[in-house]
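Journal club side-thread
Mid-discussion, someone asked how the predicted structure for our own chain would compare to the paper's figures. Pasting it here so we can look after the session.
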Amino acid sequence: MNMKKSVFVLLLIFGAFSGLAYAEAPAANAAAPAVPPSADEQGTLSLLRAGLRLDHREFVKSSLKLNDDEAKRFWTLYNQYEGDLIKVHDRKWQVIQDYADNYDDVSEDKAAELVKNMFEVRQSRTDVLKTYYKKIAKALTNRMAMRFVQVESVWNAASDLKLGTEIPLIPKQ
């Protein structure tokens, strides 16, 4: 991988996981990497994802303001939720990598496949959230479960916005 592409991959990875409050306009004409990330870049991605999970957890904790009894019941479920969410995020990164691999020559069929896969990822994320909404409502209250859904919605919207501004638009032909 040449240095320019390597730097772009690292910037894309870092940008997708940092500074959610400061989004920029999409880079419509930016060149996307055409080769998969190296082992070092994959290691960096793993570390950044772990850091993001810690940030997410802290955001949830500070937003929910649970008492000790609620926290005990909630965090057991949240740990399961996080495990299921990791699978969804793994799939999301596969779709993003597929887009990067095909960026220079996205056929009509590939475009349809990529969009279908991204819709499936979004639906999977919603399905996981619905499942855990029900579990949290049963373990705590409907109101607390609703608050959790609201907190997750804010986190997901900010994450989606930041990621959307970091991934270049498909070139217009």
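Post-session note: The chain is about 75% helix and 0% strand.
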